[in-house]
Amino acid sequence: MADERRKLPALATIKVPMAQVCAAQIRDWLQAGQRGEALLMNGDDARPVRASDISVLVRSRQEAAQVRDALTLLEIPSVYLSNRDSVF
EC number(s) for this protein (predicted)? Predict the structure, then answer.
């Protein structure tokens, strides 16, 4: 078990890359939605995915900033909403 822990990267070193992966996935969904390839179903009805359908839940302001920065680099507008209550 101790050997396995040494092989794992420190959480701090993967937060920015994970925010970038998250932003890239959001970009891909939005682009697919524009092409009519990513759809949300509601019974028999379907419509393309759009930005207002997507939200990202983070644990801290720092993580929110990292996701926001990653979205900004991909020219994806975003908003930050905070309620100090925790869902955890």
Answer: 3.1.11.5
Q: How far apart are CA 28 and CA 63, in angstroms?
A: 21
Specify the residue for token string 């092989």: 7
Based on its alpha-carbon atoms, the radius of gyration of the chain, rounded to whole angstroms, reads 16
Amino acid at 36: G
- Asked if 30 contacts 77 with a C-beta cutoff of 8 angstroms, the reply is no
- Per-residue pLDDT of 32-70, as tens digits, reads 999 999 999 999 999 999 999 999 999 999 999 999 999
